[in-house]
Amino acid sequence: MPIVLYGTITSPPVRAVLMTAEALGLKLEFREVNLVKLEHLKPEYLKINPQHTIPTLDDDGVILWDSHAIVAYLVGKYAKDDSLYPKDLAKRGLIDSRLHFDTGYAFAALREPVASSFWNILFKYLRTTINVSNNRHLN
Ligand SMILES: N[C@@H](CCC(=O)N[C@@H](CS)C(=O)NCC(=O)O)C(=O)O
Question: Domain spans of the chain?
């Protein structure tokens, strides 16, 4: 069974998973989820990830989302040694603190302005498209 990663290449959390897979020498089957086409809100995607975020991993039925959980899982399962995610609790604690900093502060700070302008642009586009198609009979 291939290890399947759902996402889109421009997403920073998806790239974190791709970089981790590369560091591990792991081949992933990439399945595009296009946010602009709202593919992350389709029922079949919501069935595997009700939080409708990317990335989502499917490793032979083990389904995980949130890039931080995914990278820790991949390293725990497939790394040949513990250099990327040490068993030593002090070293691991330092890595965990950085991962949580990313979740709580770094990516959160990036996500808010990007998400709000993304949705603004999308809704403007949808409104224009709907107006154009509603008014088509007037032309
Ligand atoms: N903490 C999550 C953040 C994932 C996230 O917010 N991804 C964005 C794309 S970069 C997304 O899926 N946005 C669509 C949505 O939230 O509906 C992770 O690290 O995986």
Answer: 3-80, 92-138
Q: Is 15 touching ligand 1 by the criterion CB < 6 Å? A: no
d(CA 96, CA 85): 9
pLDDT in tens, the chain (139 residues): 899 999 999 999 999 999 999 999 999 999 999 998 999 999 999 999 999 999 999 999 999 999 999 999 999 999 999 999 999 999 999 999 999 999 999 998 888 777 777 777 776 777 777 666 666 655 5
Q: Ligand 1 atom closest to Cα of 10?
A: 10
Between the CA of 29 and the centroid of ligand 1 the distance, in Å, is 19
pTM for this predicted structure: 0.85
The CATH T-level fold of domain 3-80 is: Glutaredoxin (3.40.30)
